[in-house]
Design goal:
three-stranded antiparallel beta sheet; flat
Length: about 450
């Protein structure tokens, strides 16, 4: 949404055109974004499949409605899958509340929707909050490709869209506007419509590089693949039924009120016939076709699918070779999200100044490099090599297998192990003792 100047009146006027007759395409875009989120979450997938079948077909077999898009998106958006290490002033880190959880969700929504916004503010007790905005509209000045503000709806349960209020932020302004473009009465704590932070409290994130539009495209191919997968799954369910029970048919003249099915007795006149017909389809090929719909899209997103029951066990190193493309793709995302973290930290710092806290400018974030878990044999060989070369201790080993235990608990465990081993017979002694001796039964 372009505004001539960042004033309340001009912003409200531009928004009136956006929300009214001139905003049809933008409204459809926002509706598509919300529908994409529902599809990602597996909400009401029935409607995506039902339009490809005649009415009532689900009375024979239920529609296939599996939420596979979420699995692909979550697997690909892996930068925040493991909690990153943030290096900053301890007082600042204590104000972040549930940022790690928010960022995991935010990254996945960014990959799904292409473009996202993160709203930042403070709670009454001075904690920072970070809220993902699914529906929003950036504000632009003419000839300026970077947003200078944002408008987003203040959702009220049960409110119609035309009755909703919208929040407006720029680096200098903060006010509310109605869907008809009227500036709402200011609140008691902000009578001048001034942004109390002095900075736009929003960070924008994108899945890829800019194109002809500021908005990046959604992962529509993943959502379409989910729909195709479920449509083919529904066809498969019908095929299994018809292949198993068969399609009943007769050359009798029916009056149009009789329903042919294998569960009712059909009365025929002499000379009339009734039978079951099957298509003879190769159901295995149909299953492979259904899987291919997902596999081709997964490949485009640097993923390889493993289906349940395939039984193709591989070593950790072999899996690493299979997943090297995904690993490189996720690591290439590190730079973009590291810039996002830096921008978010700068806005966090400015906002915290409004509540009387000064944050030192030093900030760093270390993302966890994705890896494929090693097999038990590979883990054992690694530990033997590191321990044998003095690069790791027994305490390091116990820390890895029991990360929740304290060092004191692990040291007590090492002492217990050493004491028990000292009490056991040596190998030489075992050779001189009978089985009864070892079991404690010898006199």
């Amino acid at each position: 949404m372009i505004v001539a100047l960042p004033t309340p009146e001009l912003i409200a006027g531009a928004f009136k055109n956006y929300a009214g007759t001139g905003g049809g395409s933008e409204s459809r875009k926002q509706a598509q974004r919300w529908r994409a989120v529902d599809q990602y979450r597996g909400v009401d997938l029935y409607q995506d499949v039902a339009r490809y079948f005649p009415p009532g077909i689900d009375r024979q077999v239920p529609f296939s409605v599996q939420a596979v898009a979420g699995k692909i998106i979550d697997a690909r958006a892996g930068v925040y899958r493991d909690t990153p290490e943030r290096v900053a002033d301890e007082r600042y880190l204590e104000r972040l509340d549930n940022l790690d959880e928010v960022m995991t969700h935010f990254e996945r929504l960014t990959y799904l929707l292409g473009s996202m916004a993160l709203l930042i503010g403070t709670t009454e007790d001075g904690q920072l909050y970070h809220e993902p905005l699914i529906e929003f509209e950036p504000l632009f000045l003419p000839q300026n490709p970077e947003p200078i503000g944002v408008v987003y709806p203040l959702h009220n349960a049960g409110a119609k869209r035309e009755d909703m209020e919208w929040a407006v932020w720029t680096d200098q302004l903060h006010f509310r506007v109605s869907s008809s473009g009227l500036i709402m009465a200011p609140t008691e704590d902000n009578t001048d419509l001034v942004n109390p932070y002095g900075v736009l409290p929003v960070v924008f994130a994108h899945r890829g590089a800019a194109g002809s539009s500021w908005w990046r495209p959604m992962a529509q191919d993943v959502l379409d693949a989910q729909t195709a997968f479920n449509v083919l799954g529904t066809y498969l369910r019908q095929a299994f039924m018809l292949q198993g029970a068969g399609q009943p048919w007769t050359d009798a003249r029916l009056d149009g009120t009789q329903l042919l099915n294998p569960w009712e007795i059909l009365s025929l006149e002499p000379g009339e016939t009734f039978s079951f017909a099957t298509a003879g389809a190769n159901l295995g090929q149909l299953i492979e076709t259904q899987r291919a719909e997902l596999e081709s899209v997964a490949f485009a997103h640097h993923l390889s699918l493993k289906w349940a029951g395939e039984g193709r066990a591989t070593s950790g190193e072999h899996q690493r070779l299979l997943e090297v493309e995904l690993t490189e793709a996720i690591m290439s995302d590190f730079a973009r999200w590291r810039m996002f973290e830096r921008t978010r930290f700068q806005i966090d710092s400015i906002i915290l100044q409004s509540v009387g806290m000064t944050v030192p400018p030093e900030y760093g974030v270390n993302f966890v490099e994705p890896h494929i878990p090693m097999s038990d044999t590979e883990k054992r060989e690694r530990w033997e090599w590191e321990y044998g070369n003095g690069l790791a201790s027994k305490l390091d080993y116990l820390r890895e297998i029991d990360p929740d235990a304290s060092d004191d608990m692990l040291r007590d465990r090492l002492e217990t192990i050493a004491r028990e081993r000292a009490e056991e017979p040596t190998i030489q002694q075992r050779g001189e003792l009978s089985l009864a001796d070892l079991l404690g039964g010898a006199e």
